[in-house]
Amino acid sequence: MADHDHGYKLLFSHVSVVADLLRGFVREDWVQELDFETLERVDGSYVFDDLRHRESDMVWKVRWKDRVLYIYILLEFQSTVDPFMPVRSMTYTGLLLQTLIRQKMLTPAGLLPPIFMLVLYNGIGPWTTLQEIADLFEPVPAGLQVYLPRFRHFLLDENRLPDMEESERNLAAALFGLERSRDPEDLRRHVSRIAEDEKMDESFQRSVQTWLTQVVLPARFPGVQVPEVRNLKEMHSMLVENMTKWARQEKEEARQEGAHDVVFSLMEARFGSIPEEVRRRVQQIEDMEELKALGRRLLSASSLSDLLH
Hints:
By secondary structure, this protein is α/β, with parallel strands linked by helices. It has helices spanning 2-11, 15-25, 85-102, 142-145, 171-180, 184-195, 202-220, 232-271, 276-283, 288-297, 304-308; strands at 34-41, 45-47, 53-55, 58-64, 67-76, 115-121, 154-157. The strands form 2 sheets. A 5-stranded mixed β-sheet has the order 1-4-5-6-7, with helices on one face. A two-stranded antiparallel ribbon has the order 2-3. Helix 6 runs antiparallel to helix 8 (232-271). 18% of the residues are buried.
């Protein structure tokens, strides 16, 4: 999981992806007023008052009209939803503001610059928690409500985003498609789309290539040897050539695993607990005909020793 997190974070360290993320998925008027030519990443290391360090996710700044807007992208890879995410995101925003104050990065009027907190969640289950921190408090009298904190983050639930029209697709959408692809052809199609994108610079191409080679393909096709390629176009050609074979190999391995499970269940039903050494010997049998023969011998074998010899 750590490799996945690091690889995915690397992809969102590219200007073109962050710009496409905002353009394509934050459908608000102010996004159209951003000068994406000025988009740049800023230092994301903040320090708590007790001197403990926390490495943040992604912090960017961009010109918005005549001012600077900070964009904090919090990558949430947890398999379960944090019900108090607004507290976390408000804390991280506060740390960024403290840093800006210390560095005197204020507006010409001496005020705090605006910050947009975006939580990108890619967990399996849907995001079910609230986004406004005030909604996490117990109900209070009207006079006390004005003293409750007000903070809201923007949420992108990656696995439940609606499909975009073909004309609207961009690099961020293609990456989400790669992450969500569930079959070899779908994966190949998304790789092709990224490889043909004219906005893709060499650095981003290397990041995607590394992510595919070290994270995505090993996760989708465990045990396969991914050939070395020089760029994403070669990666696409390699996928066209190999993915059918990998899918067939994956299906065969799943079939073997299922056959082993059936044999183990029959052995336990017949002879009780199976010694670990016996289990290892059976697990090493890869030929399906040999496994079938072992299953047939179960009908007449008087003991595990008789079965295996």
